[in-house]
Design a protein that fits this description.
Layout lengths: L1 E12 L2 E13 L15 H13 L1 H29 L19 E4 L2 E4 L2 H15 L18 E12 L2 E13 L5 E8 L4 E23 L2 E27 L7 E20 L7 H13 L1 H29 L3 H4 L3
Length: 333
């Protein structure tokens, strides 16, 4: 005879109680027996010998198959429980899932149960999002988020015309490494303004690709076409997210990320352009030295297209993160 112990986690999803992460542990007592039908297609004698050997080692065999049986039972029982709960109105279920240990209302965000109070919610949301970020390198296909390492930018075009510098440059097939190293340092939720402001820190962004450049520097013609590499360090970014409502049929409205803006400051920058001046190394090295000595201007020229690239990268993440939440859990009524 076997007994089963079932453990499961309860959660509220869209105002309904669901069972998830079911776990079953079996405990069997008494003699175990097993019989394999048609174990051998040759003779009845061989089948009897096989079953005899199985009977002699039934305990060892049971121990080996037990984890698979427990997993299968857990899946079946979890499915049955959720089908049953689906037909029960949420207002008929008394649950403490939407309260924390101090009795305050909570909101499920990822694997976190976050307090609803704005300051505590902001801190919890920061922690929840930071859990997701390391996974962004390989992407989150089930949420429609592609890999971000490297982040690909098809084209960057920069027109620089200030004083003695008049240069037009195009950068293509740009790969950017480093976005998955970002960390959210602060989150501010403003329910009345329907706004979330997040501050990020990115230790380093490394770029490489192909460039084409032409123009004049101090009346000296400048031309180049070849590979380039660049590095940004100590990047502090501010995300401003405008939230709205997304209607869900026969359910409460979900949150929607209506707009996402990115602004960042760079602590350091460097660049190396190959094949400048038709491969003249002396002139090329001089040009690269000049650019790196004036990295603040270089960073400023790259800032707007890089902000656009970061916005395009972060928008799907924000869409998923907020799209799983109920609008009424965040907005003030």
């Amino acid at each position: 005879m076997c007994t089963a112990a079932l453990e499961a986690v309860g959660a509220k999803v869209h105002k309904r109680i669901v069972v998830r992460d079911a776990n079953v542990k079996l405990k069997c007592a008494g003699q175990l027996s097993a019989d394999l039908m048609e174990a051998h297609s040759t003779t009845h004698e061989m089948e009897m010998i096989t079953n005899h050997l199985i009977g002699m080692h039934s305990s060892e065999i049971a121990k080996e198959v037990q984890p698979a049986v427990e997993t299968a039972l857990a899946m079946v029982l979890e499915d049955i429980a959720n089908k049953f709960l689906k037909h029960i109105p949420s207002n008929m279920i008394q649950s403490d899932l939407d309260k924390n240990s101090e009795g305050h209302e909570t909101i499920p965000i990822g694997g976190f149960m976050c307090p609803r109070e704005e300051e505590a919610l902001s801190e919890c949301l920061k922690d929840a999002l930071n859990v997701y970020i390391p996974e962004l390198a390989t992407g989150l296909p089930k949420y429609g988020i592609p890999p971000c390492e490297p982040l690909m930018i098809p084209t960057l075009t920069i027109q620089q015309a200030a004083g003695p510098i008049s240069i037009s440059s195009t950068y293509t097939n740009v790969s950017v490494k480093g976005p998955a190293s970002m960390r959210i340092t602060k989150v501010e939720v403003n329910s009345s303004k329907h706004e979330v402001i997040a501050k990020l820190y990115i230790p380093e962004l490394r770029m490489k690709g192909h460039y084409n450049l032409s123009g004049k520097l101090l009346l000296l013609p400048v031309e180049g076409d070849g590979k380039f590499s660049a590095k940004y360090g100590d990047i502090y970014a501010v995300l401003t997210i405008a939230l709205g409502r997304l209607h869900r049929e026969n359910d409460v409205d979900a949150l929607a990320c209506e707009k996402l803006d990115v602004k960042f400051d760079v602590g350091s920058a460097s660049i190396n352009l190959e094949n400048l001046f038709d491969g003249d190394n002396e002139l090329g090295n001089t040009m690269n030295t000049f650019l790196n000595e004036n990295w603040q201007k270089l960073a400023k020229e790259f800032q707007e297209p890089m902000e656009e690239a970061l916005r395009d990268f972060l928008k799907p993440l924000a869409d998923h993160a907020f799209g799983t939440l109920n609008a009424d859990d965040i907005f003030l009524r």
